[in-house]
Amino acid sequence: MDKEKLIKKYDNQVDVYKRALNNRTLARWRTELLNDAHGRVLEVGVGIGSNFQFYNRENVCLTGVDFSPEMIKAARKTASACHIDAELLQKDIEEMQFESDSFDCIVSTLTLCGYPHPVKVLNNFNKWCKTGGTVLLMEHGLSSNIIFSNTQKLIDPLFIKATGCHCDRKIINIVEESNLKIERTQSHWSGIIQLIWASVDK
Q: Could you tell me the pTM of the whole model?
Protein backbone atom coordinates (compact mmCIF):
# COMPACT_ATOMS: atom_id res chain seq x y z
CA MET A 1 0.00 0.00 0.00
CA ASP A 2 1.22 3.50 -0.87
CA LYS A 3 2.72 5.11 2.24
CA GLU A 4 0.70 8.31 2.00
CA LYS A 5 -2.51 6.31 1.79
CA LEU A 6 -1.37 4.24 4.75
CA ILE A 7 -0.66 7.36 6.81
CA LYS A 8 -4.14 8.70 6.05
CA LYS A 9 -5.62 5.34 7.04
CA TYR A 10 -3.97 5.58 10.46
CA ASP A 11 -4.93 9.27 10.73
CA ASN A 12 -8.54 8.14 10.45
CA GLN A 13 -8.19 5.49 13.18
CA VAL A 14 -7.44 7.86 16.08
CA ASP A 15 -10.94 7.49 17.53
CA VAL A 16 -10.72 3.69 17.29
CA TYR A 17 -7.50 3.77 19.33
CA LYS A 18 -9.08 6.12 21.87
CA ARG A 19 -11.97 3.71 22.41
CA ALA A 20 -9.46 0.94 23.20
CA LEU A 21 -7.62 2.99 25.84
CA ASN A 22 -9.61 1.47 28.70
CA ASN A 23 -9.56 -2.12 27.45
CA ARG A 24 -8.82 -4.10 30.63
CA THR A 25 -7.20 -7.06 28.89
CA LEU A 26 -4.80 -4.89 26.91
CA ALA A 27 -4.11 -2.87 30.06
CA ARG A 28 -3.11 -6.01 31.95
CA TRP A 29 -0.69 -7.05 29.21
CA ARG A 30 0.75 -3.56 28.84
CA THR A 31 1.28 -3.32 32.61
CA GLU A 32 3.22 -6.57 32.75
CA LEU A 33 5.35 -5.82 29.70
CA LEU A 34 6.15 -2.18 30.45
CA ASN A 35 7.08 -2.87 34.05
CA ASP A 36 10.50 -3.70 32.54
CA ALA A 37 10.88 -0.44 30.61
CA HIS A 38 13.73 1.65 31.97
CA GLY A 39 16.20 4.41 31.19
CA ARG A 40 16.15 6.08 27.80
CA VAL A 41 13.20 4.46 26.02
CA LEU A 42 12.29 4.53 22.33
CA GLU A 43 8.68 3.62 21.59
CA VAL A 44 7.95 3.01 17.91
CA GLY A 45 4.48 3.27 16.43
CA VAL A 46 3.55 5.25 19.50
CA GLY A 47 0.03 5.90 18.20
CA ILE A 48 -2.10 7.99 20.55
CA GLY A 49 0.12 7.12 23.53
CA SER A 50 -1.80 4.07 24.72
CA ASN A 51 1.25 2.90 26.70
CA PHE A 52 1.97 6.18 28.48
CA GLN A 53 -0.06 5.47 31.62
CA PHE A 54 1.83 2.20 32.14
CA TYR A 55 5.35 3.62 32.25
CA ASN A 56 7.01 4.39 35.55
CA ARG A 57 7.62 8.11 35.02
CA GLU A 58 10.51 8.06 37.50
CA ASN A 59 12.36 5.38 35.52
CA VAL A 60 12.03 6.42 31.88
CA CYS A 61 13.01 9.19 29.49
CA LEU A 62 10.72 8.60 26.52
CA THR A 63 11.06 9.22 22.79
CA GLY A 64 8.00 8.26 20.76
CA VAL A 65 7.83 7.93 16.97
CA ASP A 66 4.85 7.59 14.62
CA PHE A 67 4.37 8.51 10.98
CA SER A 68 0.76 9.64 11.45
CA PRO A 69 0.41 13.36 12.27
CA GLU A 70 -3.02 12.82 13.82
CA MET A 71 -1.67 10.05 16.05
CA ILE A 72 1.19 12.27 17.21
CA LYS A 73 -1.25 15.11 17.87
CA ALA A 74 -3.34 12.78 20.05
CA ALA A 75 -0.21 11.37 21.75
CA ARG A 76 0.79 14.88 22.88
CA LYS A 77 -2.58 15.22 24.63
CA THR A 78 -2.20 11.78 26.22
CA ALA A 79 1.30 12.62 27.45
CA SER A 80 -0.02 15.79 29.06
CA ALA A 81 -2.88 13.89 30.72
CA CYS A 82 -0.47 11.23 32.01
CA HIS A 83 2.09 13.82 33.17
CA ILE A 84 4.84 12.08 31.26
CA ASP A 85 7.65 14.00 29.57
CA ALA A 86 7.97 12.59 26.06
CA GLU A 87 9.75 13.74 22.92
CA LEU A 88 7.29 12.88 20.13
CA LEU A 89 8.48 12.70 16.52
CA GLN A 90 6.36 12.42 13.39
CA LYS A 91 8.67 10.15 11.40
CA ASP A 92 8.64 6.83 9.58
CA ILE A 93 10.66 4.47 11.77
CA GLU A 94 11.78 2.51 8.70
CA GLU A 95 13.49 5.64 7.39
CA MET A 96 14.98 6.89 10.67
CA GLN A 97 18.56 6.59 11.79
CA PHE A 98 19.69 6.76 15.41
CA GLU A 99 23.23 6.38 16.67
CA SER A 100 24.16 2.88 17.81
CA ASP A 101 23.64 2.22 21.52
CA SER A 102 21.28 5.22 21.87
CA PHE A 103 18.60 3.59 24.04
CA ASP A 104 18.34 1.39 27.12
CA CYS A 105 14.99 -0.02 26.05
CA ILE A 106 12.89 -0.14 22.87
CA VAL A 107 9.14 -0.75 22.97
CA SER A 108 6.83 -1.87 20.17
CA THR A 109 3.19 -2.72 20.80
CA LEU A 110 0.98 -3.83 17.90
CA THR A 111 3.24 -2.41 15.18
CA LEU A 112 5.14 -5.31 13.55
CA CYS A 113 1.96 -6.18 11.65
CA GLY A 114 2.32 -3.07 9.50
CA TYR A 115 5.98 -2.78 8.51
CA PRO A 116 6.92 -3.85 4.97
CA HIS A 117 10.26 -5.12 6.33
CA PRO A 118 9.76 -6.13 9.99
CA VAL A 119 13.05 -8.05 10.35
CA LYS A 120 14.98 -4.98 9.18
CA VAL A 121 13.14 -2.88 11.78
CA LEU A 122 14.03 -5.36 14.54
CA ASN A 123 17.66 -5.39 13.44
CA ASN A 124 17.67 -1.60 13.79
CA PHE A 125 16.33 -2.05 17.32
CA ASN A 126 19.26 -4.34 17.98
CA LYS A 127 21.64 -1.66 16.71
CA TRP A 128 20.00 1.31 18.44
CA CYS A 129 19.64 -0.42 21.81
CA LYS A 130 22.63 -0.62 24.13
CA THR A 131 24.37 -3.90 24.88
CA GLY A 132 22.51 -5.34 27.84
CA GLY A 133 19.40 -3.39 26.87
CA THR A 134 15.87 -4.70 26.49
CA VAL A 135 13.40 -4.85 23.61
CA LEU A 136 9.77 -5.24 24.69
CA LEU A 137 7.17 -6.38 22.17
CA MET A 138 3.42 -6.97 22.30
CA GLU A 139 2.31 -8.02 18.83
CA HIS A 140 -0.58 -9.75 17.08
CA GLY A 141 -0.23 -12.39 14.41
CA LEU A 142 -1.11 -15.86 13.20
CA SER A 143 -3.02 -18.07 15.65
CA SER A 144 -1.76 -21.48 16.74
CA ASN A 145 -5.34 -22.73 16.24
CA ILE A 146 -5.60 -24.09 12.70
CA ILE A 147 -9.21 -22.95 12.25
CA PHE A 148 -8.38 -19.41 13.35
CA SER A 149 -5.14 -19.32 11.35
CA ASN A 150 -6.79 -20.50 8.13
CA THR A 151 -9.39 -17.76 8.57
CA GLN A 152 -6.65 -15.18 9.16
CA LYS A 153 -4.85 -16.23 5.98
CA LEU A 154 -8.09 -16.02 4.03
CA ILE A 155 -9.05 -12.53 5.21
CA ASP A 156 -5.55 -11.01 5.27
CA PRO A 157 -5.91 -9.13 1.95
CA LEU A 158 -9.14 -7.53 3.17
CA PHE A 159 -7.63 -6.87 6.60
CA ILE A 160 -4.71 -5.00 5.04
CA LYS A 161 -7.07 -2.93 2.93
CA ALA A 162 -9.28 -2.07 5.92
CA THR A 163 -6.67 -1.48 8.64
CA GLY A 164 -3.28 -1.16 6.95
CA CYS A 165 -1.77 -4.16 8.73
CA HIS A 166 -1.39 -7.92 8.30
CA CYS A 167 -3.21 -10.39 10.52
CA ASP A 168 -1.31 -13.53 9.44
CA ARG A 169 2.30 -12.83 10.34
CA LYS A 170 4.24 -15.38 12.41
CA ILE A 171 5.55 -12.98 15.02
CA ILE A 172 7.85 -15.35 16.90
CA ASN A 173 9.45 -16.45 13.62
CA ILE A 174 9.99 -12.84 12.58
CA VAL A 175 11.78 -12.06 15.84
CA GLU A 176 13.84 -15.25 15.57
CA GLU A 177 14.96 -14.19 12.07
CA SER A 178 16.30 -10.92 13.50
CA ASN A 179 19.49 -10.34 15.48
CA LEU A 180 17.57 -10.04 18.74
CA LYS A 181 17.66 -12.82 21.32
CA ILE A 182 14.32 -13.88 22.76
CA GLU A 183 14.50 -14.22 26.55
CA ARG A 184 10.88 -15.13 27.32
CA THR A 185 7.42 -15.03 25.80
CA GLN A 186 3.77 -15.13 26.73
CA SER A 187 1.06 -16.29 24.35
CA HIS A 188 -2.60 -15.26 24.55
CA TRP A 189 -5.80 -15.69 22.55
CA SER A 190 -4.70 -18.97 20.93
CA GLY A 191 -1.34 -17.49 19.99
CA ILE A 192 -2.75 -14.39 18.30
CA ILE A 193 -1.15 -12.10 20.89
CA GLN A 194 2.53 -12.53 21.75
CA LEU A 195 4.37 -10.74 24.54
CA ILE A 196 8.12 -10.94 23.97
CA TRP A 197 11.03 -9.89 26.15
CA ALA A 198 14.17 -9.79 24.00
CA SER A 199 17.78 -8.82 24.59
CA VAL A 200 20.32 -7.22 22.30
CA ASP A 201 22.79 -9.55 20.58
CA LYS A 202 25.90 -7.81 19.18
A: 0.96
